[in-house]
Amino acid sequence: MLLPFDYKKDPYLILDFSASNPDLETLDLTDTALFSAYVYGKLRAAGARVGMGGYNEHRVIYRRSKHFNTSDETSPYNGPREIHLGIDFWAEAGTPVFALLAGRVHSFQDNAHFGDYGPTIILEHTGNAAGKSFGQTAFQPRYSLYGHLTRQSLDGLQEGMEFNAGQKIGEIGPYPENGDWPPHLHFQLMTDMLGLKGDFPGVCSLADREKFLRICPNPNDLLGIAGLG
């Protein structure tokens, strides 16, 4: 369980942030209040408690921030980043977030740029139980990332601190402290941290798509939410 919702009983809405959504052509995505009103207006209209989606989605919403569009020769990315590597869960600020798998804190930090993760926690999962959870015949190191949290979620954290599956790890943060997004959780799995700490790309370029999809498996393979892909 990531959030306090039962995805077999509670209504949810799959949200589309690709170019195929005509609403995004006229929506000022740089205005976080308007963006948030759009997201939560959609949820209310559908009678949904949570919105979700995004894995491997080719999104247009990252054009709102220079953070995803650095293309000079010093950038480590191969062009603008538009491919989403995790699943987003759009729910009200303050919603508790729970560790999906048992693990220990690999790293954490406040990625405080417009459009970035804001407060972020990364867990490392080790041992046979984690390997079985990922369906592996032999365990390989795995990591999970929780982004767009409250700053309070980072209070008292230490690297190596252990969390049980289902234990509260933080809360969904409000904007602007969550990276200036409509409130949501970005949840992502990684097989390799690439030497990074406290941060990991949640969005990649078209040129890097296959590379990062190999590193970042689909979280719904664990979650099994119907209709999510």
> What is the number of helical segments per DSSP (H or I, 4+ residues)?
4
Order of helices and strands: EHEEEEEEHEEEEEHH
The total count of strands amounts to 12
CATH architecture: Distorted Sandwich
State the domain count. 1
The percent range for helix content is 10-25%
Low-confidence segments: none
The average pLDDT score comes to: 88
Distance between the termini: 18 Å
- Per the CATH scheme, the topology name is Glucose Permease (Domain IIA)
Q: What is the radius of gyration?
A: 17 Å
- The fraction of residues in strands falls at 15-25%
What is the overall shape?
A: globular
Helix vs. strand class: alpha+beta
* Main sheet: strands, sense, barrel: 8 strands, mixed
Would you state the CATH class? Mainly Beta
* CATH homologous superfamily caption: Glucose Permease (Domain IIA)
Question: How do the strands line up in the largest sheet?
Answer: 1-2-4-11-8-7-6-9
List the helices and strands and how they pair.
Layout: E1 12-14, H1 32-46, E2 50-53, E3 81-84, E4 87-90, E5 96-98, E6 103-111, E7 118-125, H2 128-133, E8 142-147, E9 162-163, E10 168-171, E11 185-190, E12 203-205, H3 209-215, H4 220-223
Parallel strand pairs: 1-2
Antiparallel strand pairs: 2-4, 3-12, 4-11, 5-10, 6-7, 6-9, 7-8, 8-11
Task: Provide key terms for this protein.
single chain; 229 residues; alpha+beta; eight-stranded mixed sheet; 4 helices; 12 strands; 24% strand
